[in-house]
Design a protein that fits this description.
Length: 397
């Protein structure tokens, strides 16, 4: 049973646990996406993986493991989602204490997690509902509407925060010596990639056009807002040093870059199909390589800083507890997912690496190590922060 330490106040960062579990489910879907043939659909469906399993062999084994991973971590996502919804309602006063403080923006963890839920539901429907793809053109408007509702909620939350800050002159660099405000960029980037799904996969021109427009709008706003947050955050850190509890925010740029990269890939496919814009795997090699290399740089720098201030030793492996630590999970998930896109689009589809050759499996093995480390961190943090013993058990200790 999920139970946090009752001596700590509820914080929106607990939603990042559900977000990380949902992202992990998506990471297992990547094996199916790139290793299961699906010539008739843009993503693998029930019929595709069923056919793959019937062939037997090593790839069938990977397919089966991937399906189990999708199911298990989807269940974990929904369990953590339900727990957070209940906790949010039961501890509204804890959330209200964040109002008129820099931490108020952490409420954006709620809409970004809800957007992930839509993605998880879409994957589950495609994989486990036979023939659902025949109705997909009727489902895309529903998905767009769902993302639009989440976008309204997120934009309203962000606008309220910014209005109060600008009106009251609320920006004080000493209180912003971290990059936690990137959670808002993360949210809008998640919405951009969500809308881009219909842009890339819908065969209905008006549906694709609406999705493309909305995706580009949130993509552009994410880029603008990201530059503002990074410039102010880095300046504040240079002046006051990094706020130790917010150390995971140094890695938040990694999932943002993954979402923006996938958005670009999806938009490229949509523009090619509906608007006659020429595209190819080769044309995507440059932006995907830039993003992946930048992510490696951000992770390396962040790791050095968190090793220097003992954050990982204290909050991941040690006794210190903070829900903000769940922010360590999404960067690992994001690096794995972007690595799968970069490897398959930039190297395999361009013919540089032969599918399922020894060189191919070396690349997959490296990404697999990243995934294993990420899953271990998610499970460890979940057990540490959300498996707190009940009073009855503590009495027997």
């Amino acid at each position: 049973m999920l139970r946090r330490n009752p001596n700590t106040t509820y914080h929106p960062s607990y939603w990042l646990a559900a977000l990380g579990a949902g992202g992990t489910a998506v990471s297992f879907f990547m094996y199916l996406m790139w290793m299961v043939p699906h010539k008739n659909t843009p993503i693998p469906t029930f019929a595709d993986w069923s056919a793959q399993l019937n062939t037997g062999g090593f790839l069938a084994g990977i397919t089966l493991v991937a399906l189990v991973g999708v199911i298990l971590f989807s269940l974990m996502h929904f369990a953590l989602l339900a727990w957070n919804i209940v906790e949010s309602h039961q501890h509204k006063k804890d959330l209200e204490t964040l109002d008129n403080t820099p931490a108020e923006l952490q409420r954006m963890a709620i809409p970004v997690t809800l957007a992930m839920t839509v993605n998880v539901l879409f994957i589950l429907g495609a994989l486990f509902v036979p023939n659902l793809w025949h109705l997909v053109e009727f489902l895309f408007p529903g998905a767009i509407a769902a993302f639009a509702l989440i976008a309204f909620y997120a934009t309203r939350q962000f606008a309220r925060y910014m209005a109060k800050m600008v009106r009251g002159g609320g920006y004080r660099s000493a209180e912003h010596n971290h990059l936690s405000a990137l959670i808002s960029v993360f949210t809008f980037a998640m919405l951009a990639v969500g809308f881009a799904a219909a842009s890339a996969m819908s065969h209905t021109a008006i549906t694709a056009a609406i999705a493309t427009t909305l995706s580009i709008a949130f993509l552009a706003f994410s880029l603008l807002l990201g530059m503002i947050v990074l410039s102010h955050g880095i300046s504040a850190m240079m002046e006051h040093g990094l706020a130790e509890p917010a150390s995971p925010s140094l890695w938040m740029l990694v999932p943002i870059l993954t979402l923006l990269g996938i958005t670009w890939v999806r938009l490229s496919h949509g523009l090619e199909h509906h608007f006659g814009v020429e595209g190819s795997a080769g044309s995507l090699f440059l932006p995907l390589t830039i993003i992946f290399m930048l992510q490696l740089g951000v992770l390396t720098l962040g790791y050095k800083v968190m090793k220097a201030n003992n954050y990982l030793a204290s909050y991941l492996h040690g006794d210190k507890e903070s829900p903000i630590s769940f922010g360590l999970v999404c960067p690992g998930v994001a690096l794995f997912v972007m690595g799968m896109f970069w490897w398959h689009i930039g190297w395999v589809k361009t013919g540089i690496v032969t599918p399922f050759s020894p060189a191919y499996w070396v690349g997959i093995a490296v990404l697999f190590v990243i995934q294993v480390i990420t899953i271990a961190s998610l499970l460890k943090l979940t057990h540490k922060l959300l498996r707190y013993p009940s009073p009855a058990k503590l009495a027997h200790v």
